[in-house]
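Working notes for the structural subgroup meeting. M.R. asked for a predicted model of this chain before we commit to crystallization trials. I am recording the input and output together here so anyone reviewing the notebook later can reproduce the run.

Input as submitted:
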Amino acid sequence: MKNGSWVIYFLLLSILQTLVLSNKYKIGAVFEKIDRKKSSMFRLAGTISNVDIVTETVDKLDFLSASHAVCKMKREGVAGIFVPPTGSTSQHIASECQALDVPFIRNLVNVYLQPQVLNELYVDLVKTMQWKTFTLLYEDNSGLLRLSHLLKTFSPVTLRKLDEKRNYMEMLLEMRELGEKNIVLDCVTGALPDILRQAQQAGLITPQHSYIVTSMDLHTVDLEPFKYAGANIIGLNAIDPVNKDLEMVAMESQSVNVSSAFVYDTVSVYSHVLEQMNLSFIPRECERESRPIYISSIKKYIRENEISMHGITARIELDKKGNRANMMLQVVQLQEDGLITVGTWNSSDKLRLKLQPQPRRFVTKKLPEKHFKVLTIISAPYVMRKHSDQHLLGNAQYEGYLVDMFEEMSHILGFTYEFILNYEYGSLDPQTNRWTGMLHELQTQRADMIVADLTMTSERFAAFDFTMPFINTGISILYYKSVPHLGISVLSIFSFELWLYLALSLIFMGLMFFILA
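Returned structure, recorded in token form:
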């Protein structure tokens, strides 16, 4: 009896194991040799999602090997094939899968960000930061295509291509000379440390400079050297920090980049769809199918059902075409405590972005340690040379309304300063497009500020930050007031006296002709 119970137990266990294995799908993937991190993430996602993983590795642009890989996976009965969007054989494998009725996962379940969505986000960011003009640093022409909507929306925009050998110093120094302070940085994540380091050496990582970094892997970069510089560095983050699977994934990888996170979510969502459909995939020969049964069935299910779940890249919702909808992104800002979330952006509520400025404590904390170089110009009664029998040095050489006011400000805020005398206010040279005088010194960061009776014109206001006017200098807008014309405007060509002499001469000539007749 006892032996009979054990036999029944093993029979039931075998049946349950068969049922479980029959519902376990195989998902294939084709990676290039450089995609090791994505490949490991794909395997991890398969383990967590309870699916079998089949992977093949091919060389870049090796279309023949890619075709063989697809055929091999079809013979193994895979439920779908995944290829990263950056793969050189991606389009080729998609065509092969369509012909062989093997689901190409990204054409069915696309959790990646759409380029037009990112373009709208960048436009919202620039508008929120109130940039009047900015410089776009890009790596290649594909970057210009990705940011085409941004370039069409704003003008003027300065375009600068990054050096392939990563020697950016000459370009960065020129940017400092021209006073370019608002920068959109589009490059691969690996180039960010070099660019930011050289920008700091060139004096472009200061409280006067703002950056929008398009890479969503800013959290993987060591930003420790730039945390206390005061520059406004803004980035994007697609990874949900409170996701339950993130901790498990982070145990396998020290830093999860966004491309790996999208790989993980693709496997999770697709396996979820397969579980709901309960399809059965059998091994088939590598032959072209006249009717794509599997692909049509999955497309129909996605079209007729609502697909939503939580992934590493926040909440995932698919539209009727299988593309991601209502994508939520976090906007992060580099502060003293690291990257801090300062706003969110949603593809359906695009204008809900709220950026927070740098905290005021940053300014008040740093001012007692600051020493400012202050440009000024002799202009009574604001700044004048002090007459004295003694030999005066430094700030003691000057007196005047602005000198006294700035001295009082330094006592209140606790900073130190030195006046640097200049002899020209400065204007924009239309030929070189560069500023002259004090404005040139300020633009090239040879001084921190100008304290002078400098008139705020629209041209200067577009390039420099002014304090609000606190005194009226008496200069007003002058315009020509036209004199009302007489009824017969043709008479205005000559003066009244000339018309009088002309009339008298005509009368005199008439009388002379009458007398002579």
